[in-house]
Give the backbone structure.
Amino acid sequence: MKKVMCALKFIFRNGETWTIERKHIGDLWIKQVTTSFGRIGENDFQEIHPCESLKIEITREADSVNSNDINLGGLEAGMFNRVKQFQDIEMMDILYRDRVNGDKPVSVDKDRIYFPYKALDVDGHDNQYQSSMISDDDKLYIVIDPDKTVQDIYGAKLANKAM
């Protein structure tokens, strides 16, 4: 069986989620994913996958909420506006489907990726490392990086619609 990436599921700091199907993802780069092991408090040890940075281009067709996502704010305003209002993407699941010789998907698997996160203020909800903008052709660009902003990476493609 071959694993095929079918979607990305962003997980926000407050627990809300946004699932984006593969067909709505343009440019995507997840830099330097590593494997770590640890535990918080008395929880079980677990494997985690932190990364150095993320850059992604998302088409307007993804500006909706999957019925499996728990996202009342996204239902009312759309996910592009959700990302515009809050800089709080904390992690992401890469969702896979196993395929057997091109047949229909037979199971779903995932890898969880943690993003660099530095709180902007004392409440800790917004990430200093996250920036996003919408281009003239109505695509959402998100960058989560300690050293670069969305303007640094996608500047030539972007309108002056800072988020």
